[in-house]
Amino acid sequence: MTAGSRIVAMGHYQPSRVVTNDDLASTIDTNDAWIKDRVGIAERRIADAETVADMATFAAEKALAGSGLTAADIDLVTVATCSSIDRCPNVATRVAARLGIAAPAAFDLNTACSGFSYAMGTADHAIRAGASRNALVIGAEKLSDVTDWTDRTTAVLFGDGAGAAVLTAVPDGEQPGIGPVLWGSAPDKGDVLKIEGWQPYIKQEGQAVFRWATTALAPFAIEACRRAGVEPSELAAFVPHQANTRIIDGIVKRLGLGPDVVVAKDLVESGNTSAASVPLALSKLIERREVPSGAPVLLFGFGGGLTYAGQVVRCP
Ligand code: UT7
């Protein structure tokens, strides 16, 4: 039996093409000042030939290389994505095939921008139940494929990328590194953010999502901390979904986080990458050694559905 799981290592991947706000302003009626002021984004990465599976594989490869484990050790692969055009074989089995992971449980999961926390919660439960020992949990998106590049209300928001974590079982008696997930949804509000139909462009009622995010979510984030036995004031870092700096600042205020808490604002350089935003931001914080190993970090995703999920993890 195991007491739970912990993150051993993380990795991320972003396409090399940088698209600045000024680049977008040359084709649609927008400007750098509006995007920075209203959203907080300065630039984003946009994929060219890379698919969701490519980006997921590159991120997972890095996480695996840093974990001390090998492909033979991995028995579960899950990919959170809402933008993969390829559906079967699913992205998880494509990643497994490319990394030489022979026979894992392999599934994709779509809860839009909260996907990484849902996937990590699910993998953690599988490990707790004894159905897995070492899992790869990935968030990967190519939102540029589902963006209407003539619609200024959405085209300025999104980017492409992937982040991945390797989870392993902790021995009985040891403290788990992944706290209980707090997850849920508001299905009655589903219409305010859609990617649907045969030409599935993202459509969103930005203000409705903004209102929900700034009013409804802070109590859930606090509850995720409570379930882990951690006070928000004890957090070393907060890694929320990277949609809008004004939303992030609003939640930070309601959590009462002090000035010493590291708050991820990766959207400035990456845009909103939906299910990839939390693992991408966390992987970068770890790479830059901005959070000490073992320190508590609150992850919190939210978006289409409307869905939300979060948990406190210990930094690897
Ligand atoms: O990741 C999934 C979850 N999604 C989110 O969390 C997104 C939540 N929503 C938001 O972050 C914000 O609502 C947006 C960033 C999407 C929009 O910001 P806003 O402050 O709510 O803007 P708005 O929609 O109220 O529009 C204000 C004005 C409008 O002009 P008028 O009617 O006041 O003349 C818009 O037409 O800004 C205009 N506008 C723009 N102007 C320049 C809208 N988009 C742009 C643009 N450039 N790209």
Automatic annotation (TrEMBL):
The protein's name: Beta-ketoacyl-[acyl-carrier-protein] synthase III
GO BP term, pick one: fatty acid biosynthetic process
Alphabetized InterPro entries for the sequence: ACP_syn_III_C, ACP_syn_III_N, FabH, Thiolase-like
Keyword Repressor attributed: no
Pathway: Lipid metabolism; fatty acid biosynthesis
Free-text note regarding domains: The last Arg residue of the ACP-binding site is essential for the weak association between ACP/AcpP and FabH.
Binding partners and assembly: Homodimer.
General function of this protein: Catalyzes the condensation reaction of fatty acid synthesis by the addition to an acyl acceptor of two carbons from malonyl-ACP. Catalyzes the first condensation reaction which initiates fatty acid synthesis and may therefore play a role in governing the total rate of fatty acid production. Possesses both acetoacetyl-ACP synthase and acetyl transacylase activities. Its substrate specificity determines the biosynthesis of branched-chain and/or straight-chain of fatty acids.
Swiss-Prot/TrEMBL keywords: Acyltransferase, Cytoplasm, Fatty acid biosynthesis, Fatty acid metabolism, Lipid biosynthesis, Lipid metabolism, Multifunctional enzyme, Transferase
Gene Ontology CC annotations of this record: cytoplasm
Enzymatic class: transferase
Residue ranges of the region described as ACP-binding: 242-246
Entry GO MF terms: 3-oxoacyl-[acyl-carrier-protein] synthase activity; beta-ketoacyl-acyl-carrier-protein synthase III activity
Family statement drawn from the similarity comment of this UniProt entry: Belongs to the thiolase-like superfamily. FabH family.
Catalytic residue positions: C113, H241, N272
Reactions catalysed, as given in the entry: malonyl-[ACP] + acetyl-CoA + H(+) = 3-oxobutanoyl-[ACP] + CO2 + CoA
Compartments in which it is found: Cytoplasm
All copies of domain Beta-ketoacyl-[acyl-carrier-protein] synthase III C-terminal, residue ranges: 225-314
Entry's EC annotation: 2.3.1.180
NCBIfam families linked to this entry: fabH (TIGR00747), PRK09352.1 (NF006829)
Pfam families per UniProt: ACP_syn_III, ACP_syn_III_C
Residue ranges constituting the Beta-ketoacyl-[acyl-carrier-protein] synthase III N-terminal domain according to the UniProt record: 107-184
